[in-house]
Amino acid sequence: MKTCEHSAPSICNLPLVEPRKLDPNIDRNRESLVRYIEKKWVNHTVSHYYFMQDQPQLTGQTNQLQAVRDAFDEWKNLGIGLDFIEVGDAAQAEFRIGFAPGSSWSYVGRDCIDLVPNHEDQTMNFGWDLTTPYGRDTALHEIGHAMGFPHEHQNHKAGIVWDEDAVYANFAGSPNYWDDATTYHNIIRKLSPQDATGSPWDRDSIMHYQFDAGLILSPAEYQQQPLIPSPGLSEMDIQEALKFYPDNSAAQWPELVPFLSHKLDITPGQQLDFTIEPNISRTYNIQTFGTMDTVIVLFEDDDAEPIYLAGDDDSGTNYNSKISQRLINGRRYYLRLRLYSAGASGEGGVMLW
User: Fold this and answer.
1) Please, how many CA atoms are within 13 Å of residue 148, restricted to the half-sphere of its CB?
2) Backbone angles phi, psi at 36, to 5 degrees
3) Class of 262-352 in CATH
4) Start and end of every Peptidase metallopeptidase domain (predicted)?
5) CA distance readout (Å), 272 to 21, 241, 287, 345
6) Contact 151, 11 (CB under 8 A)
């Protein structure tokens, strides 16, 4: 994360999460596409956040809560298609936020629901003052993780060559006191090693740490000077957020009609949205066809916000996404479909029956 206040701040410490297992024989390009997209939410998701003020060890002061609210608003005010709503019930929240001193962290994207289903457990923490310039960037950074964005300095396109001994020694000391495994997980480890997807390195990203001089061998300029990203969201942060989460809610989405296949004519990372208005109350099946990797999520429209009903993710497997769900005549539903990889044929479809 960013700061110009001091040279050795406490920094984000992501929870250690084992990568999802994929077929060991999976095509490298396909794997890279899956890894790049797998933790992102489908667009038009309404996420709920809850402050864990009922647990004394996790309570935050009023100004700290407001700093987090302001950071959610800053992301939302970019014009993205995600929405963030504060709720008073932990069971309704995907993001459950505490303020235990010492470390700031968040689960990344869909890990918040896939790996932390117990509503009594945290998914995000803020361990220092969020009202300073560095603190404001901390709030933006952790919310960026919750939206599905990883650490930018671990971008495989960054081309950073670390002085690994110096990095391990630096983060073993004050103020972080990390062991080698934590330092490797948060800094040395490269994400998505196949050079097929991902944006160019953005050294000003809100998702980038600052680094003291002498920790980086290449680019050579950082052997003698620190790498300190500019404050706030970078232009590339904004572009990436709008690419994955465009505000196209006013678009006319096609209707999925029973037994009529809809061809998927999109590129990896893009999303299609459909409406479903059943005229008979019964259990329906929704399934993709072809060799594509997709995630599909079904919501019900309750006039206030779309309510999640079911989802399936076939990425990196040899089966197709499928949902079986009872739908009620007279109600409206939305199917969100995000494409990871188009497969060998480059063609596929989705059908309701």
Assistant:
1) 23
2) -70, -30
3) mainly beta
4) 37-187
5) 26, 17, 14, 19
6) no
